C-alpha cells in the first residue's frame, strides 16, 4: 500500500509495513523495521522530497502480473513514477540502502535462497541501472534494523539489533 503526504499542520508519523512504500515531503517522519527485507531510501536535496520502500523479495515471480511494492524491482518503479509526478529527477536523488539480514543465523546451504543477500544485491543493481548514486548503506549481518527517515531534511536514523542509534 503506497503512502503519500501533503503539507499539513503538525508532524506526521508513518509506519511502513512490509510491501509498503512512501513518497512525500517535509513535516513527516517514516519508520520501518527490517530483517531480511530491504529498504531503499531516495532523497532529492533540491526539491526536499523523498521516498522509502520496504520490500520482501528481490523480483516479482514469473506469472505474477500485478506490480507490487513487495518486490524490489516493482517498489523502485512505483517510487520512481510517484517521484517523477512530483518533478523529481531520479538521477539527482541520493540513495541509501538498509536491511538484508540473515535472520536465522545458520550457515548457507547449497540450493537454499539467501533472501537478505539477494534483496541487498538486487537493490544495489537496480539503483546502478537507473544511475542513482548510493550515498550510504547498512546491509547484511544477522540483526534487525529500525530505520527512521525525514524526507524534508533527508535525515535517516538507524537502530541496529540492540545497538545505539546511528545517524
UniProtKB/TrEMBL annotation:
Superkingdom per UniProt: Bacteria
Gene3D superfamilies, per database record: 3.30.1330.200
Keywords: Chemotaxis, Hydrolase
UniProt EC number: 3.5.1.44
InterPro entries named among the record's database cross-references: CheD-like_sf, Chemorcpt_Glu_NH3ase_CheD, Cytotoxic_necrot_fac-like_cat
Catalytically driven reaction(s): L-glutaminyl-[protein] + H2O = L-glutamyl-[protein] + NH4(+)
SUPFAM superfamilies: CNF1/YfiH-like putative cysteine hydrolases
Entry keyword annotation includes rRNA-binding: no
Enzymatic class: hydrolase
Keyword Hydrolase on entry: yes
Any GO BP: chemotaxis
An example molecular function term from Gene Ontology annotations: protein-glutamine glutaminase activity
PANTHER family: CHEMORECEPTOR GLUTAMINE DEAMIDASE CHED 1-RELATED (PTHR35147:SF3), CHEMORECEPTOR GLUTAMINE DEAMIDASE CHED-RELATED (PTHR35147)
Task performed by this protein: Probably deamidates glutamine residues to glutamate on methyl-accepting chemotaxis receptors (MCPs), playing an important role in chemotaxis.
Family: Belongs to the CheD family.
Protein name as catalogued: Probable chemoreceptor glutamine deamidase CheD
Amino acid at each position: 500500500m503506497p503512502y503519500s503526504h501533503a503539507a499539513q499542520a503538525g508532524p506526521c508519523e508513518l509506519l511502513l509495513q512490509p510491501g509498503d512504500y512512501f513518497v512525500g515531503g517535509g513535516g513527516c517522519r517514516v519508520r520501518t523495521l527490517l530483517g531480511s527485507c530491504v529498504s531503499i531510501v531516495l532523497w532529492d536535496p533540491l526539491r526536499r522530497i523523498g521516498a522509502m520502500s520496504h520490500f520482501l523479495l528481490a523480483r516479482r515471480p514469473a506469472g505474477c502480473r500485478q506490480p507490487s511494492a513487495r518486490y524490489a524491482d516493482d517498489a523502485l518503479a512505483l517510487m520512481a513514477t510517484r517521484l517523477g509526478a512530483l518533478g523529481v529527477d531520479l538521477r539527482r536523488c541520493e540513495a541509501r540502502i538498509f536491511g538484508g539480514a540473515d535472520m536465522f543465523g545458520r550457515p548457507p546451504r547449497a540450493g537454499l535462497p539467501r533472501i537478505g543477500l539477494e534483496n541487498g544485491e538486487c537493490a544495489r543493481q537496480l539503483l546502478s541501472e537507473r544511475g542513482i548514486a548510493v550515498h550510504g548503506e547498512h546491509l547484511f549481518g544477522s540483526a534487525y534494523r529500525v530505520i527512521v527517515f525525514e524526507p524534508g531534511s533527508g535525515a535517516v536514523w538507524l537502530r541496529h539489533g540492540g545497538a545505539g542509534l546511528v545517524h
